[in-house]
Amino acid sequence: MASSRAFSWVALALLLFVAVVPTANGDDLSPRYYDKTCPNVQRVVRSLMAHKVAGEPRMAPAVLRLFFHDCFVNGCDGSVLLDATPTSARRTRCPTASLAGFEVIDEIKSLLEHDCPATVFCADIIALASRDAVAILEGPTWNVPLGRRDSRSAAEKPPHPREDNLGVLIDMSEKHGLDARDMTALSGAHTVGMASCENYEDRTYGTNGDADIDPSFAETARQTCQGPSGDGDKASFDAQTPMKFDNAYYLELIARRGLLTSDQTLYGGGGLQDNLVEMYSVDDGEAFGRDFAKAMVKMGNIPPPKGMPVEVRLKCSVANW
Q1: pLDDT for 169-194, tens place per residue?
Q2: pTM of the predicted model as reported, rounded to 2 decimal places
Q3: Which of 58, 84, 114, 202 has its CA 20 to 30 A from that of 272?
Q4: Catalytic center residues
């Protein structure tokens, strides 16, 4: 009887908490959001990310990709982490189904729930973990504004990885408050990680009539497509330094060796767009690192729709009730 009464009070507290959490993500974000309520949050995230990437390096680009998919669908609300339900299917809907790294975020959340119960938003954990993923791979670092809210449901439509029209890519970015420079810098996240054949075969086999591709690169990619499904049919976005966060991605674009059509469309049309790629490709990549960090902060500030029900999820994979 006592345990039942205690459970009822916990449930009521959660309901009230969900009701009073503000819905805005944007101007109220601050790198010091958890200074008083969970001061060790960044240390916990950084430590576990370092441990996971040391054991399985692919987790770094995987977690970074989670953040992109989270923010570009419905704002940075942690909805990409939600398990499938009868009304939403973020983790199972293509291309979201190809995402990885969920277990890393879940483990970080579990540790933080032990230290700071019902305090740290899952959306913030992705933001911090993606920053640390880049730093672990020798990329830039930045202060992450915090205080994003967790949505209670998933959006329906994930971003499509094979959009080949530069104008459409720019329009999509501008709808989220990002300009062409931000988009070009953020695309540099493809300096790490891999893509499966189904995402690049249209370019390497020429099914889109794409002649702007280095022939030897296309042949190598086609051979990869003939490998077994799973990791066997995957190719690195950046064949030069696939697990180092540097500016080699832009050198690949200039050499017509972009893996996805949406990669290569960033270069070859002339004008400002080509100038950006060339600027990011030179020297030690200082310009790229600087602009990437700025663009990640801007992307991380994309808010969910106003009035959307939000909460601090106790488990990142499910809503609280």
Answers
A1: 888 899 999 999 999 999 999 999 99
A2: 0.87
A3: 202
A4: 69
